[in-house]
Design brief:
The chain has about 900 residues and is α/β, with parallel strands linked by helices. The protein is built from 24 helices and 26 strands. About 45% of the residues lie in helices and about 15% in strands. β2, α2 and β3 form a beta-alpha-beta unit. The two termini are about 50 Å apart.
Length: about 900
């Protein structure tokens, strides 16, 4: 069955028109006679989007119960049974309601594609897994619904639905995205111009990367080796020498001149692996490259200029940066050097030849290299890349490819040895014939033996044997009596010629064995280096699996690498890709050029060429490590998911332990008071009745405060606490807070200036915060030293300080006091359940402020409450401290108080 195609409309933010574009495409295909159905579309009440559903067949949704409510999801079985040619499935990142077949909607889409159904879907850039943390930093809103990048990259077509930030804000203001009551809050929060501009840039850059992959695939499929200057890519060559840091920084500045340019560093190592750069220096330079936003690569071969240019062309590089030669003048005269050779062979690639402090042993000065298009603006003392004294390099692929597993000498050496035989043997024969009679037969045999040994050292056993036989025949014909006849008169000459052939054969055998051992040592060294890099990749942590696959692809010079996992434990289960790197990855393990088991239900597949058995042995190590990295990644995810559960369990346990007294004591007092009032066996005076009523009232108030604190804390943690900020002065709030505390607050020393700027806060919430921190200070302040309240303006903030002279809190324990149900240093439950400071910090942050503890000079604790001043904070509509709802950004005001 032919797999369906996936088309994704990608947008930078909600409201740009992704669903509209998807439905428009569905209508276009339906008009051409294609069988199109709507599997699921979320219109969000937008009239124009809703209107596009007319004329399209809509598959009824499936209704699922969850936590007492009814929710609808796409009926996957119904769509599969209907078997349309095209299905429209909106919001690819959506998390299905528990009870659905798949956890994520993109997994539903995967099943539709496997059934041969084409799918049109939509996605916002903030839901891409790789950009999740970046988007949270930009917008301040965590996105809990994500899609693996590989799912989107494997889509057949990704189309960007773009809109300028100003146009999107106008669309929002006109009520085309959210309901009118949510517009103002959205405009001042998620839909700020800066946020939208940053999200738009992320979407454009991601699409640009996708286009780069498609271009690389096209060039590979059509055998295009020429450089296409679609984007600036600067390659800097490194030798691991002392000039490397300077060269990397220079290349980085060249790349920085073009926005979006890539920086790639490459080191060419000798194929024998026995000589080369200092590993520590290369490791340091690699770290520098990565800090500057570049990537480090290593290639192996026997020709440095060819290696550099092969790598540059494979990466579609536009500029190649080389360092000036460190060789002396005589060496440069005898051999042109790597820089000149590379420049002559560079073709369309611009080559920068840059001087540095190590060049020719002189102070740095500027030079212009051939093909250097921008060298005029290179400042003194800068440098580019690999100096010309690099050892014999490598014919490079994109990575550190293992040398071939040879069993003897290279064919090139055998050819050279054969040519030496054809040249030297006739030459020495002519020479000795011209001086016949000057030397005896033993001397003439030694001359031929010297030629045989020379040929044996160059070409091994085969050419040496040919040389020995030819030399013996010529010795017999021209120098052994009787002359010019294939006969030997003396018996000792027969032994001499036989010994001659035997010595030549033995020497050639020793040379061949030595060459084989040398190649084995080179291969072993290369394998050890590869496994060392492999171990380092595994130790890097969360990105171990992508690094492993990329390293495997580069090491063996393959086009792509994919780790597959079999669905379920059934031996006939479908293979699904876990992660892939490179262009044109296979869709099944058997489609790859190489396919190795990586575990019980895992297989590693690579495309490009067939690997020999020796390479497959090393690849098996990659496969095993990939399985370990995947397992470790999933264990880390499981641990991360278990963390909140464990924390909730800890909080629940602490809550049960903490509230046992706080709930039981006031309930017991209230019940005793009510029982006493209702009792008929005791006659109470009016004063006694009033006292019992006061006790009951005080106990119920205490219970009310406890329940309110618990509710507010739960609202804060759920992101649903309503905040109503407005302009207010501290001189209005502080007295009300002290009145709330009652008589104990009368001794508090208030030192709040009258000329403080007004603040932007919710008066009711701010009063509760001040009550909590002042009550805490009163509880710990020593007798005779009451707490002090001071306030001051600091830039665009106003700070309120509550100072006490109590025991204070050690620096290591300060954050613990802001955790719920913590009573640091207390040993009883009479002082509350430990919600005060946790709730106070949450309320403060909901108002855009901060609450931090500090030392009081001379001993004690100072709580610093910092809030924004109204001079820099515009008035806003009532807001809700909330996280983003599923499938969209946070919209303040969208959630009410429960």
């Amino acid at each position: 069955m032919t797999r369906g195609t996936l088309r994704i409309y990608l947008g930078a933010a909600p409201g740009v028109g992704k669903t509209y574009a998807a439905l428009d495409e569905a209508h276009r295909r339906a008009e051409r006679g294609t069988d199109v159905v709507v599997g699921l579309v979320e219109t969000h009440g937008r009239p124009r989007t809703t209107a596009l559903l007319d004329g399209l067949e809509i598959v009824p949704r499936r209704v699922l119960p969850y936590r007492g409510g009814m929710f609808t999801e796409m009926d996957l079985d119904a769509v599969l049974a209907r078997r349309p040619q095209v299905a429209v499935v909106d919001e690819l990142a959506h998390t299905n309601v528990p009870g659905s077949r798949n956890e994520k909607r993109w997994q539903d889409v995967h099943e539709l594609l496997a059934a041969g159904i084409d799918v049109i879907s939509t996605l916002n850039v903030q839901h891409l897994e790789s950009l999740n943390d970046v988007v949270e930093i930009i917008t301040g809103v965590p996105q809990r619904e994500t899609v693996p990048d590989d799912v989107v990259r494997r889509a057949d077509q990704v189309e960007l639905v773009d809109m300028a930030p100003e146009a999107l804000r106008r669309r929002l203001a006109h009520g085309n995205i959210y309901a009118p009551e949510k517009v103002d809050a959205a405009l001042s929060n998620y839909f700020r111009v800066g946020n939208l501009t940053a999200l738009r840039e992320l979407a454009l850059l991601w699409i640009a990367g996708k286009v780069d992959e498609q271009l690389d695939r096209y060039r590979a499929e059509h055998g295009i080796g020429a450089t296409w200057e679609t984007r600036e890519r600067v390659v800097v060559a490194l030798t691991g020498g002392p000039e490397g840091d300077t060269l990397i920084r220079r290349a980085s500045r060249i790349a920085a001149r073009s926005r979006g340019a890539d920086l790639l560093a490459v080191h060419v190592a000798r194929s024998d692996g026995l000589t080369g750069a200092d590993p520590a220096a290369l490791a340091r330079q690699r770290a520098l490259v990565e800090r500057l936003g570049g990537s480090f690569h290593q290639v192996i071969g026997d020709d440095v200029p060819a290696a550099l240019l092969d790598f540059a062309r494979a990466e579609n590089a536009t500029q190649l940066v080389l360092g000036a030669s460190r060789r002396g003048r005589l060496a440069r005269i005898l051999r042109p050097g790597i820089g000149v050779t590379t420049t002559n062979m560079s073709g369309a690639i611009d080559v920068h030849m840059v001087t540095h402090a190590e060049a020719w042993g002189r102070r740095p000065r500027r030079t212009r290299g051939a093909g250097d298009a921008t060298s005029d603006d290179l400042p003194d003392g800068t440098a580019g890349a690999a100096p010309d004294d690099t050892s014999d390099g490598a014919v490079a692929r994109s990575g550190r490819r293992l040398p071939r597993d040879r069993t003897g000498l290279a064919p090139r050496r055998r050819i050279i040895a054969t040519l030496l035989t054809l040249v030297l043997v006739p030459a020495i024969t002519v020479g000795l014939t011209s001086v016949r009679g000057t030397f005896n037969l033993a001397t003439e045999m030694l001359a031929y033996l010297l030629v045989v040994v020379t040929v044996a050292m160059v070409g091994g056993f085969g050419p040496a044997l040919l040389c020995a036989i030819g030399s013996s025949l010529l010795l017999n014909y021209y120098f052994a009596p009787p002359l010019h006849r294939w006969a030997i008169a003396a018996g000792e000459n027969v032994l001499a010629l036989a010994g001659f052939v035997l010595v030549g054969g033995m020497v050639s055998r020793v040379v061949a064995t030595s060459a084989r051992r040398y190649n084995q040592a080179v291969r072993a060294a290369a394998e050890a280096a590869t496994l060392s890099v492999l171990a380092g990749s595994v130790l890097r942590g969360e990105q171990a699996l992508p690094a492993l696959l990329a390293q495997a692809r580069e090491t063996f010079g393959m086009t792509s690498a994919v780790l597959f996992e079999r669905a379920g434990d059934d031996a006939d289960g479908e293979w699904r890709p876990v992660l892939s790197v490179g262009a044109d990855p296979p869709s099944r393990p058997e489609d790859g050029s190489v396919d190795l088991p990586a575990g019980e239900n895992l297989r590693l597949a690579l495309t490009g060429r067939t690997l020999p058995a020796a390479d497959r042995r090393v690849l098996a190590a990659f496969a095993a490590q990939a399985a370990i990295a995947l397992e470790r990644h999933r264990l880390a995810e499981a641990a991360a998911e278990a963390g909140p559960i464990a924390e909730a369990d800890r909080v629940r346990t602490a809550l049960l332990a903490a509230v046992s007294h706080d709930l039981r004591a006031p309930l017991a007092v209230a019940k005793a008071a009510v029982t006493g009032l209702r009792g008929r066996d005791i006659t109470l005076t009016e004063e006694e009745q009033a006292e019992l009523l006061a006790s009951a009232d005080e106990s119920i108030d205490r219970l009310t405060r406890l329940v309110e604190n618990l509710l507010d804390l739960s609202r804060l943690q759920a992101g649903a606490l309503s905040v109503f900020p407005r302009r207010i002065g501290l001189d209005e709030v502080v007295p009300h807070a002290l009145d709330e505390i009652g008589p104990p607050a009368r001794k508090v020393d208030i030192q709040v200036p009258d000329d403080l700027p007004a603040i932007h806060a919710d008066p009711a919430l701010l009063e509760r915060v001040i009550v909590n921190i002042v009550a805490n200070a009163l509880r710990h302040a020593p007798a005779g030293t009451p707490p002090v309240i001071t306030a001051s303006a600091l830039g665009d903030r106003v700070e309120l300080r509550v100072i006490d002279r109590g025991p204070g809190i050690p620096a290591a324990e300060r954050e613990r006091v802001f955790q719920p149900f913590q009573r640091l240093g207390d040993r009883d439950n009479t002082t509350g359940v430990g919600l005060g400071l946790a709730l106070s910090r949450g309320l403060t942050e909901a108002m855009g402020g901060t609450l931090t503890p500090d030392d009081t000079p001379g001993g004690g604790l100072t709580m610093v409450l910092s809030l924004p001043a109204t001079a820099t904070t515009p008035a806003t509509a009532p807001a809700t401290s909330s996280a983003a709802p599923a499938g969209g950004p946070a919209v303040p005001g969208a959630l009410g108080t429960p």
